Amino acid sequence: MKRYTLVTLALMLLFGRAHPLADAASDARAQVDFGNKVARRGLWKEALYRFQRAVEYDPTYAAAWNNLGIGYEHEGRMDDAREAYETALDLDPDNLTIETNYDLFLEVSDRVTEDPQ
Questions:
Q1: Quick one: which of 26, 45, 82, 117 has the fewest CB in 10 Å?
Q2: SS3 4
Q3: Angle at 62 between CA 9 and CA 48, to 5 degrees
Q4: Which residues of the chain have pLDDT under 70?
Q5: pTM
């Protein structure tokens, strides 16, 4: 993430340029939106890449972490999925969608662990 001095931030605001943190949040949302579109088309590797980019842009964006968990789960990367879901819940503990996705993940993960075929 870029670091800006106080003078640089003041000049950016003075001349109408958006705050860099606002840009990062906007970029993260755009990545998630695009990731969702390609995931619906079954392009999971691209979706996963977009969700990863989103959390790089804005590591506090809980929905991006949730979607990253879904992507990892789809690719069979269960440890990574668990970590992503837990990060999402840490960031937004009252989000019912994230909680539901994590609970469903735990159910599937437990069944896979129990059935050693």
A1: 117
A2: coil
A3: 100
A4: 1-22, 112-117
A5: 0.77
Architecture of domain 18-114: Alpha Horseshoe (1.25)
- 53-65 core/surface letters (b: 16 or more CB in 10 A; e: else): bbbebbeebbbbb
Task: In whole angstroms, give the CA distance from residue 55 to residue 37.
Answer: 17
Residue 90 and residue 99: Cα distance in Å, rounded? 10
Asked if residue 62 lies in contact with residue 88, where contact means CB atoms within 8 angstroms, the answer is: yes
Q: Tell me the residue type at 41.
A: R
Burial class (CB in 10 A: 0-12, 13-18, 19+), 84: buried
